[in-house]
């Protein structure tokens, strides 16, 4: 995906940082029989699923996870052989496609299995991971009755469906208060007991996302679904200080000045003429806009970029493909502008950008559009 590009805006993805993050996190499990499942859904949280998956597999992950069957197929078509789990519900009629590509699917409805069975040929076999909803309230089995009907079906159709894993997902592993994590963990342990009656032995048991896997290794069973922190980002600012590893942000966003102009006092900038120069000012234009996921809110909520290591604020409304900044001094056209990342002694972190947009760091690289080429540094 290091596609050829003719534009002066790009995202830099530091694959070395990803390798180092995985290595540091893996250290927490030294000597323990716990594998890493690298979560590369949503195009690797916007970093690029294929390069990130390949790097993760090279540096210690043995499994991959995505949200959609389509995302799994993209990885297979890129020649990735590792086991891939689809975390979301695939349509029962697509189970043959999942089987053909040897994809692990998530199951939590007996009716789904009954319907999916009709779409498997007698020689097809699909490996499934059973999802328990222990308190996230999203997808998964909640009651023993639901579990029994699903497990009975699986026990009776083991030629077509083999249980490769059982898992759940935490809702609050990134919060300082750990009581709800404990509650979910205890529910999960009780639910795992339900499998015994049906003689179902899942080789893989997993619950931990980045926050849980790093903070509670004792609640992580034998597989760790590592997402956000592989990319070097904290699961939430409130637990950053508590994390046992130092993470390195992999994603930077850069552009170059396409015009630099000196304007007299009182001149308007951008749609709505909402900004007027306060004195004689150097204004720079960069070719990134809301169509790239660089939302208008960046300029209304005090956003800044780095130019030659110095802070420069956005001025006026962000347009579809371009926006303007107030330069600290005259600089040359072509100068690099850092929207996310380091320049000189200063750094604009993903957390700073997320705070500016009143959201979480996860969202920021995910919404940087496909129009912005990803450039890989290794
Ligand atoms: N497992 C599941 C089921 C997930 O949905 C996610 C992330 C992860 C693991 C990885 O979590 P981490 O990135 O915190 O390590 N899912 C989402 C989500 O649905 N919205 O934000 C993150």
Automatic annotation (TrEMBL):
<comment type="similarity">
    <text>Belongs to the alanine racemase family.</text>
</comment>
<feature type="binding site">
    <location>
        <position position="320"/>
    </location>
    <ligand>
        <name>substrate</name>
    </ligand>
</feature>
<dbReference type="GO" id="GO:0009252">
    <property type="term" value="P:peptidoglycan biosynthetic process"/>
</dbReference>
<dbReference type="InterPro" id="IPR001608">
    <property type="entry name" value="Ala_racemase_N"/>
</dbReference>
<feature type="domain" description="Alanine racemase C-terminal">
    <location>
        <begin position="250"/>
        <end position="377"/>
    </location>
</feature>
<dbReference type="InterPro" id="IPR009006">
    <property type="entry name" value="Ala_racemase/Decarboxylase_C"/>
</dbReference>
<dbReference type="GO" id="GO:0030170">
    <property type="term" value="F:pyridoxal phosphate binding"/>
</dbReference>
<comment type="pathway">
    <text>Amino-acid biosynthesis; D-alanine biosynthesis; D-alanine from L-alanine: step 1/1.</text>
</comment>
<comment type="function">
    <text>Catalyzes the interconversion of L-alanine and D-alanine. May also act on other amino acids.</text>
</comment>
<protein>
    <recommendedName>
        <fullName>Alanine racemase</fullName>
        <ecNumber>5.1.1.1</ecNumber>
    </recommendedName>
</protein>
<dbReference type="InterPro" id="IPR020622">
    <property type="entry name" value="Ala_racemase_pyridoxalP-BS"/>
</dbReference>
<dbReference type="InterPro" id="IPR011079">
    <property type="entry name" value="Ala_racemase_C"/>
</dbReference>
<dbReference type="GO" id="GO:0008784">
    <property type="term" value="F:alanine racemase activity"/>
</dbReference>
<dbReference type="InterPro" id="IPR000821">
    <property type="entry name" value="Ala_racemase"/>
</dbReference>
<keyword id="KW-0663">Pyridoxal phosphate</keyword>
<feature type="active site" description="Proton acceptor; specific for D-alanine">
    <location>
        <position position="41"/>
    </location>
</feature>
<feature type="active site" description="Proton acceptor; specific for L-alanine">
    <location>
        <position position="271"/>
    </location>
</feature>
<feature type="modified residue" description="N6-(pyridoxal phosphate)lysine">
    <location>
        <position position="41"/>
    </location>
</feature>
<dbReference type="GO" id="GO:0005829">
    <property type="term" value="C:cytosol"/>
</dbReference>
<dbReference type="Pfam" id="PF00842">
    <property type="entry name" value="Ala_racemase_C"/>
</dbReference>
<dbReference type="GO" id="GO:0030632">
    <property type="term" value="P:D-alanine biosynthetic process"/>
</dbReference>
<dbReference type="Pfam" id="PF01168">
    <property type="entry name" value="Ala_racemase_N"/>
</dbReference>
<feature type="binding site">
    <location>
        <position position="138"/>
    </location>
    <ligand>
        <name>substrate</name>
    </ligand>
</feature>
<dbReference type="InterPro" id="IPR029066">
    <property type="entry name" value="PLP-binding_barrel"/>
</dbReference>
<keyword id="KW-0413">Isomerase</keyword>
């Amino acid at each position: 995906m290091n596609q050829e590009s003719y534009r002066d805006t790009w995202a830099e993805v530091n694959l070395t940082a990803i390798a180092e993050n995985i290595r540091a996190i893996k250290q927490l499990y030294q000597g323990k029989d716990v594998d890493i499942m690298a979560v590369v859904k949503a195009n690797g949280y916007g970093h690029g699923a294929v390069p990130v998956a390949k790097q993760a597999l090279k540096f210690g992950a043995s499994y991959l996870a995505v949200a959609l069957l389509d995302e799994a197929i993209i990885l297979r078509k890129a020649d990735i052989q590792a086991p891939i789990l689809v975390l979301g519900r695939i349509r029962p009629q697509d189970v043959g496609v999942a089987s053909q590509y040897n994809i692990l699917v998530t199951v939590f409805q007996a009716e789904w299995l009954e319907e999916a069975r009709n779409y498997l040929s007698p020689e097809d076999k699909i490996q499934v991971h059973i999802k328990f909803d222990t308190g996230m309230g999203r997808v998964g089995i909640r009651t023993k009755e639901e579990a029994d009907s699903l497990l009975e079906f699986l026990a009776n159709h083991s030629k077509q469906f083999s249980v490769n894993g059982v898992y759940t997902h935490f809702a609050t592993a990134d919060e300082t208060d750990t009581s709800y994590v404990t509650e979910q963990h205890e529910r999960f342990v009780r639910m795992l007991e339900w499998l015994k009656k049906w003689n179902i032995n899942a080789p893989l048991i997993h619950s931990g996302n980045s926050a849980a896997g790093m903070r509670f290794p004792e609640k992580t069973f034998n597989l760790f679904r590592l997402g956000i922190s592989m990319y070097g980002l904290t699961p939430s600012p409130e637990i950053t200080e508590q994390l046992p590893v130092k993470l390195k942000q992999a994603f930077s966003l850069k552009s170059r000045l396409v015009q630099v102009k000196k304007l007299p006092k009182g001149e308007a900038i951008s749609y709505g003429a909402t900004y007027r120069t306060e004195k004689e000012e150097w204004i720079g234009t960069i070719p990134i806009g809301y169509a790239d996921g660089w939302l208008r809110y960046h300029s209304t909520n005090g956003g800044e970029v780095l130019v030659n290591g110095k802070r420069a604020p956005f001025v006026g409304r962000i347009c579809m493909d371009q926006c303007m900044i107030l330069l600290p001094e005259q600089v040359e056209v072509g100068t690099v502008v850092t929207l996310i990342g380091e320049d000189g002694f200063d750094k604009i972190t993903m957390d700073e950008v997320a705070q500016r947009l009143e959201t979480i760091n996860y969202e920021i690289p995910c919404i940087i559009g496909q129009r912005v080429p990803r450039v890989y540094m290794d």
